[in-house]
Amino acid sequence: MPRMEDILNLPVQDLPCSEFSAENMNWVKLEGGRQGGDDIALIPFVRVDDFVKGESSNPACPASFRVESKRKRPVGSVAKPRVDGYLEYTLYWCSYGPEDYRESESVIVDATSAKPASGKGSRPGRRHMMRGCLCHFTVKRLYTRPHLALIIYNQRRHVDKSGMPCHGIIDIDAVGTRAMYAPRISDELRQKVMSMLYAGVSLDNILQNHAEAMQKQGGSLNRDNFLTRNDVRNMERTIRNSSLELLGNDECSVKIWIQRHQKDVFYFQDNAVSGYS
What we know:
Helix content is 23%, strand content 14%. With 277 residues, it is of the alpha+beta class. α2 crosses α4 (229-241).
């Protein structure tokens, strides 16, 4: 078992696939310190998003990892950085935790489990997702190696404090509910709905079109089957709030918009690069 001061001797894992998860990687148990016993691995910093997406696609426990906390340091702010010192520190937590509101849904809510009026846990739709999941990991962009990211997996299993599965297909209590699936719709469906909104299709027609498509598909297979009016309204709000800038160069304007709204782009081909006119 290596100690934290040995982490730079670990191999940097840059997997060839576009997205990858913990199952695709080789992990090492850390010895001693606050992270003693945690799994660690090194990846290129530019692949962090690919890892987060891969972890969210776990077939047994589809999830979504949100940023629970984040800290940054400017270059040169630390005179003698530790080997695991960071430029950026990000804690990712499964969206089905860490709070657990399952019990409070059926009993009188006490002061400790009551939903807060503001802050974490207060947003619409969040309460039904809080199932006490403890799965979380930390990503450090290393201070002395900014091109590398140290992943510290504190809890790899999607379990609650009792050690039992708390969502996904392996959770008996989640069968037949939205907790079987990922908490958010897929990027593919999001792109489809955004395209329809840009084309001027009404909310009701979008939902009707989606319901007909799901009926042909048959059965509830993933979160996309539960597309709601709120999902579509949130995307409408995204479109309304997107900033618009007018530039003399149309080609430059398009590229700037695409860079700022990559999630909303279904397909783009740069004619200048491809050679077409």
